[in-house]
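Sat 14:20. Reprocessing the chain from the morning session after the first attempt stalled halfway. Input below, unchanged.
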Amino acid sequence: MKCNVTDCDRVAHTRGLCKRCYTSAHVWIRKGRTTWAVLEQEGIAFPRARFHRRGRAPLTKALQLIEEMRKVKAKNAARMVFMTKNKEDV
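Finished this time. Tokens:
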């Protein structure tokens, strides 16, 4: 994703801004020249992503679910092998 600043072609990292533009915005905010709310209203910055404070990032949750699904599949495959061997013995 490209940085939201008009003349910037760098890759966006935080709030739709590249590292350099984010740092510049942060400096302006610290000096009292603007606020994140104003930058959001102007469409320069995206709202802050709040999902990290409530728990793990969505990607982490997705990867954990995939890992759990793999474990269940492996467990079910082991059961099928066991059941097949038992049927052959009978």
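The CA atoms of residues 29 and 36 lie 7 Å apart.
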